[in-house]
Specification:
The complex is a heterodimer.
Chain A (H helix, E strand, L loop, with lengths): L16 H12 L3 E4 L5 H15 L3 E5 L3 H18 L7 E4 L6 H10 L1 E5 L1 H9 L10 E4 L10 H12 L4 E6 L11 H8 L5 E4 L4 H7 L6 E7 L3 H24 L10 H6 L2 H9 L8 H22 L2 H15 L17 H12 L2 E5 L8 E5 L5 H19 L11 E5 L2 H13 L24 H25 L1 H9 L6 H5 L34 H10 L4 H5 L25 E5 L4 H9 L3 E4 L4 H13 L6 E7 L3 H25 L1 H6 L8 H15 L1 H5 L5 E5 L7 H7 L3 E5 L6 E2 L4 E7 H9 L2 H12 L2 E7 L31 H11 L4 E5 L2 H12 L7 H6 L15 H9 L5 H10 L3 H5 L3 H8 L1 H12 L7
Parallel strand pairs in A: 1-6, 1-7, 2-4, 2-5, 3-4, 5-6, 8-14, 11-12, 11-13, 13-14, 15-16, 18-19, 19-20
Antiparallel strand pairs in A: 9-10, 15-17, 17-18
Chain B lengths: L11 E3 L7 H5 L5 E3 L6 E2 L4 E7 H6 L3 H9 L5 E7 L6 H14 L2 E5 L2 H13 L16 H9 L7 H11 L2 H6 L2 H5 L6 H12 L7
Parallel strand pairs in B: 1-2, 4-5, 5-6
Antiparallel strand pairs in B: 1-3, 3-4
The chains are: A alpha/beta, B alpha/beta.
């Protein structure tokens, strides 16, 4: 009954059989669709939306769409409406920021149409009945894989389903993975979405396979490229660093399960994420060192990718930066440094990376001990291959020019990101420019000379690099001057190794709070020192790569090119044989294919979804031939990752199909038996509300005023689950108002740490006491985090750790102590999970009066300030809070008087002074304007 | 015999009731002495603590109420140092949350005797401390502050921060830089560039 036939036929753009089947199914049923990535999920969604849009007279809400999906849907609906000439079509309205005022929103909703609404706004509008759930025709939920029981989206669906039993609900996902982890995950997630039917569409689905494997198949040529020896060496060394880091982690954190770990897993897995996930339950308790090593793992994984993606010079530059960022802070010792930096393998990484760019050479002459540097400039092996491929295509076009075909002669090159786009563009533009540095008059004509080469580009990069390095040395000196001074003494950092080994286990007692002044041995602690070339060496190198006459003819060095719009294609030749370079961008790539209509595609880097998009594209058009060249480095991260992505998706679908087969059993089984108790928590309440019986008995259901920013957490959803009335308000003071007296500031453990750090909590406590009799601090642990603050480290302690001189400088416990001393009347509530918090709130509220929302909103507001002006953007505020001179006190004023960070950064001290005072103004101005190159 | 209580204020006062509590064995960094006080621990002129093990509390739920009553109004800050030594702590903690409100005390949870001792030591040691450390006025070096500032957007890491400022020479130039200029820096992918530019340009206050 929900889907009455559209009054007029609509024109769809779903040429393939599986697309049409899915569409028909979706028109009829409420279901969850999981479609393999690359098979055109958004296209399906837009077609479906259009069929409703054309019918008119409805209110459809899209939940969980990302910005670019909104852009696509909006555009597609407009196009469809034009093509179908449907007078009733309204197109898409996006409600995605707080600037649409309440009144406007109300009017818009009343008018109906298709809305894509940010979840945080939608939940508030539903709770306040600004958008009455009963008036909604249907909900389309995207990224259904992200909807867990406590998510905002599940909350939205619960409110919707409580009041609206007839509206449709269709959920979409192109990521099967999350539906396969945990206990009967598919059934669980479907319950969260109030859906009973799952429709699964893997690539091996019969209709999909038939649609894509017919006569119109795309031709794919795989090209396996070996890495250079240097690249392999670097990769091996990085993996060794990864292994040692993981070993260190295991030592410090028993219970870390990495048993199946081997070196290959480094290529295969997102090991840093795996480790993070395992440590997460105890993240607030692990040592500083553990956190650092986990960060190291992320850095190392990035390096594994960079070594194949970046050119040799850029890779070296990135290593320089990484090295500087990880160089020891003043006062550090071996204990506080990243362990991988001490390894020989790290030395290998840095040395080999440098050797790919330039190398030392003995100078002829008497002073033979002076090394001179000579450029090496190793090229990425894929470059030459790319040139070959393009040549082959040229030949191909020349010999068979007139294949009757609807596609353009265009060559589309796809790569992973815009940086690679830029790299390839540079290479292709300059591969035939010969620098000819050596005076090789005597040479024969060498056919190799005519081969395309990156020499010109790489020499230019090296020049820029050397220039950059000079400045970088300065900046690094300014920033890390302390350690720099120690560094200057050490010629060869490795020399220090033997010296530094201080006798272990012999702790010296240090008097007073000062750091032990062992400055002289700092870099001699065995870590690798950063190498800055001596000026003489650089001069030689510079001379070697001076701009030759040939090079000078080329255009100016491109340092920053105006790429205003990343969607732009790089146009190189005339229309006829255009080469287009583009980065993979998910569903957007479909547009690229449709617009470019390429006859040849070079996939410079592998991407499983894109291959499917090509298949879909090819099969959708009768007369567009496509040949795909597929390049990958053998034995590299990119190869392994590609293979594992494909495998994992297939496995996930297989498991999903299995679970679905047995699902009818799971769905009807006794809900209190095997079910996760937390899931049960929400569900028992649901039925209670749905039944309505018990609620009617109490005269007035308990009420909680909740700050709208709190909807990012799961607590409001759980309170709602406890049958409390949630009143969303813009609060200045407190997060939850339980009664006229009780005001609660909620902090997760990580919030707690950061709000101590910037002093926010202190200010919040102060203001709470101005307006409420019983302010409370709620320390809320995560459901799956261990409920303890006790650190893994040894507590029994040194006198220094409790000394008043550095009060609060240490751990969280010491800060909590200070806070309670500062506010003896502040009550602290400890909660082991948001579920527990909901229960505690219920208990606290008993025998108290209900809170007054209006009073709650007024609290802390200037008399003439409207509530809506209080809405903050958190990120810029957080940044501002880190600026020296900015205090929680003067920040309010500063953010009132200035627009954004950019404005503050560009203000003179005198301009800042009226808002923050003289000293703070000086500090703020100094912070932004410190010249890192000149000031050293 | 009763020694003259000099009560120099430098040591933690311990009620004889606490004899045998393993927490005492862990009190190592601060001196302590027995004293006849209504609380379990005297942590300064205006601060005291009662010690409660949840295991005990479950068996003798009325005990703690008697103790609180006996404190009368004597201390300004009354800590209920609660040892979480049972797995099913939820009911007890719910109850304590409510009573802390009614009976005016502050619940501090600890999970071991060592941690409990540390809290006691901290309270005593911070008796006259100032609150600078939690007011957000910590002195750190320029580099650290700078890295902290640049890495507020979630995707930006420390190496990116160094790369950014070393390219532009000063933070102000980095703030003013165009997205195109930033995106040529190694490590600064599209996502990071967008996140950074949004953070520096987004207004502090949401407009209506």
């Amino acid at each position: 009954s929900e889907d009455t036939c559209p009054p007029q036929p609509v024109k769809l753009s779903l040429p393939l059989v599986y697309q049409q089947k899915l569409f028909e199914e979706l028109r009829k049923e409420n279901e969850l669709v999981v479609l393999a990535r690359g098979l055109g999920l958004i296209r399906l969604v837009t077609n479906l939306l259009h069929s409703y849009d054309a019918a008119g007279n409805n209110l459809i809400v899209i939940v969980n769409a990302e910005d670019r999906e909104n852009a696509w849907i909006g555009q597609a609906l407009a196009e469809h409406a034009a093509i179908s000439m449907s007078p009733k079509a309204r197109g898409l309205t996006v409600v995605n920021t707080d600037f649409t005022s309440v009144g406007t929103r109300e009017k818009m909703y009343a008018g109906g149409g298709i809305f894509s609404i940010t979840s945080r706004i939608l939940v508030v509008d539903l709770l306040t009945s600004l958008l009455n759930p009963e008036t909604i025709t249907g909900i389309m939920l995207l990224h259904a894989d992200r909807v867990v029981a406590t998510s905002l989206e599940a909350f939205i669906l619960r409110i919707y389903r409580q009041k609206n039993k007839v509206g449709f609900l269709k959920a979409f996902s192109d990521n099967p993975d999350p539906f396969t982890t945990g206990f009967s995950p598919l059934a669980t997630m479907m319950r969260n979405m109030f859906l009973r039917k799952a429709s699964l569409w893997p690539r091996f689905h019969m209709h999909v396979a038939q649609s894509l494997e017919g006569k119109k198949k795309a031709e794919v040529i795989e090209l396996e490229v070996p890495m250079t020896d240097a690249m392999k060496e670097i990769q091996t060394a990085i993996m060794e660093c990864v292994e040692v880091s993981i070993h260190e982690l295991k030592k410090g954190n028993t219970g870390l399960e990495m048993d199946d770990w081997n070196l290959d897993s480094a290529l295969l897995k997102n090991f840093d994420i795996i480790v993070r996930r395992q440590l997460d339950p105890n993240w607030h308790r692990v040592s500083w060192k553990t956190k650092q090593i986990v960060n190291d793992l992320t850095v190392l994984r990035g390096m594994l990718q960079s070594v194949v993606a970046l050119d040799a010079v850029s890779f070296l530059q990135q290593l320089d930066t990484i090295h500087a960022a990880h160089s020891p802070q003043p006062g550090s010792n071996r204990q506080t440094q990243s362990p991988w930096l001490f390894l020989d393998a790290a030395q290998t990484i840095f040395d080999t990376a440098k050797r790919r760019v330039y190398s030392g050479r003995q100078k002829a002459g008497p002073d033979t001990d002076i090394d001179s540097l000579r450029p090496v400039l190793e090229e990425q092996p894929k470059w030459a291959l790319l040139a070959d491929v393009l040549e082959e295509i040229d030949r191909d076009l020349y010999f068979e020019p007139a294949t009757r075909d609807d596609s353009n002669g265009t060559i589309l090159i796809m790569c992973s990101d815009t940086n690679t786009c830029r790299q390839l563009r540079d290479y292709l533009q300059t591969m035939h420019v010969k620098p000819r540095t050596e005076k090789r008059v005597e040479d024969f004509h060498d056919p190799e000379e005519d081969r395309p080469s990156a020499a010109f580009m790489m020499r230019r990069k090296l020049r820029n690099y050397l220039k950059w390095k000079r400045e970088f040395a300065q900046v690094s000196a300014t920033l890390f001057s302390e350690n720099q001074k120690a560094l200057n003494g050490a010629v060869d950092p490795r020399l220090g190794q033997s010296k530094c080994r201080a006798p272990p286990n012999k702790r010296r007692r240090v008097r007073g709070g000062g750091m032990s002044g062992a400055g002289s041995s700092r870099l001699e602690n065995g870590s690798i020192g950063q190498y800055f070339e001596k000026p003489g060496e650089v001069a030689d190198l510079m001379a070697e790569i001076q701009i030759t006459e040939e090079e000078a003819k080329q255009k100016e060095d491109v340092i920053a090119d105006p790429l205003e719009d990343m969607d732009d294609y790089y146009q190189m030749y005339d229309m006829k044989d255009l080469v287009v370079i583009h980065a993979y961008e998910g569903d957007q790539d479909e547009h690229v294919l449709e617009e470019v209509k390429p006859k040849y595609i070079v996939m410079y880097e592998p991407d499983a979804a894109f291959i499917r998009r090509v298949e879909v594209y090819r099969s959708s058009h009768n007369d567009r031939n496509v040949r795909v060249y597929f390049l990958y480095y053998s034995g590299s991260v990119e190869e392994q990752r590609y293979l594992s992505t494909v495998r994992r998706e297939k496995d996930s679908f297989t498991r999903l199909i299995k679970e679905r087969a047995s699902m009818s059993v799971v769905m009807t089984v006794d809900a209190h038996g095997i079910e996760d108790p937390q899931e049960a928590f929400l569900r028992t309440i649901n039925t209670r509300i749905a039944g309505g019986g018990r609620l009617a008995a109490t005269a007035q259901p308990p009420r909680v005023v909740v700050d709208v920013r709190e909807f990012r957490s799961s607590l409001p959803s759980l309170l709602h689950g406890r049958s409390m009335i949630i009143v969303p308000c813009m609060l200045t003071v407190g997060d939850y108002i339980l009664s006229p007296n009780i005001c609660v500031e909620r902090k997760s453990v990580s919030d707690l740490i950061s709000s101590f750090k910037d002093g926010r909590l202190f200010t919040q406590a102060e203001t709470m006491f101005q307006f409420y009799k019983s302010p409370m601090l709620l320390i809320e642990f995560d459901q799956n985090k261990s409920f303890t603050l006790e650190p893994f480290a040894d507590l029994s302690g040194s006198v220094a750790s409790v000394s008043a001189a550095n009060a609060g400088a240490n751990d969280l416990q010491s800060k909590i102590v200070l806070l309670t001393l500062a506010f003896p009347k502040l009550r602290i509530i400890w909660s082991s999970s948001p579920y527990e918090t909901a229960e505690i709130f219920e208990r606290l509220k008993s025998q108290e009066d209900e809170p007054d929302p209006i009073a709650a909103v007024r609290a802390g507001l200037d008399k003439d300030m409207k509530a809506e002006e209080q809405a903050f953007n958190t990120e810029p505020q957080e940044m501002l809070a880190t600026v020296p001179g900015v205090t929680p006190k003067n920040m309010m004023n500063l953010t009132l008087e200035t627009e954004n960070i950019k404005e503050v950064a560009n203000m003179k001290a005198e301009e800042l002074e009226p808002f923050v005072g003289k000293e703070a103004a000086r500090q703020i101005h100094g912070f932004f304007n410190k010249d890192l190159i000149e000031d050293y | 015999q009763a020694l003259p209580t000099r009560s120099s204020g430098s040591s933690i006062l311990v009620s004889p009731r606490q004899k045998g509590n393993p927490v005492l064995a862990s009190l190592k960094s601060m001196p302590w002495e027995y004293s006849d006080i209504p609380a379990d621990y005297g942590l300064g002129l205006t601060t005291c603590a009662l010690f409660l093990s949840l295991k005990y509390h479950r068996l003798h739920p009325e005990y703690i109420y008697t103790r609180i009553r006996n404190l009368q109004g004597k201390y300004n800050l009354r800590i209920l140092l609660t040892m979480v030594d049972i797995p099913n702590h939820e009911d007890s903690l719910r109850e304590l949350a409510k009573t802390s409100l009614v009976n005016n005390f502050t619940v501090i949870l600890c999970w071991s005797a060592a941690e409990a001792a540390r809290y006691l030591e901290l309270y005593k040691s911070y008796e006259h401390a100032n609150f600078a450390a939690i007011k957000g006025v910590q002195a750190t070096g320029y580099a650290e502050k700078l890295v902290e500032f640049v890495t507020v957007p979630r995707s930006v890491n420390k190496a990116d921060a160094v790369a950014l400022v070393s390219t532009f020479g000063s933070l102000r130039n980095a703030v003013n830089a165009d997205p195109e200029q930033i995106s040529v820096i190694g490590g600064w992918g599209e996502k990071k560039v967008k996140a950074w530019c949004k953070a520096v340009e987004q207004p502090f206050r949401v407009k209506k």
